[in-house]
């Protein structure tokens, strides 16, 4: 499993609804409300053999009221 971080920008007034929908999918290990350009930050473990883009598209990105996402890949540095 490899961790990725996904930030979500939500439609105004829909952050809690989006957060509930993300939790309902049962694939995030951590989910935070954040300040700044994005509303939510999720830590997600992707199976090693899965394509990250397809995995996230199929599991999360069809949730209503998500207006933008930013995915940050992680790499083993040490």
Automatic annotation (TrEMBL):
Domain Transcription regulator AsnC/Lrp ligand binding: 6-76
InterPro entries per the UniProt record, alphabetical: Dimeric_a/b-barrel, Tscrpt_reg_AsnC/Lrp_C
Name used for this protein in its record: AsnC family protein
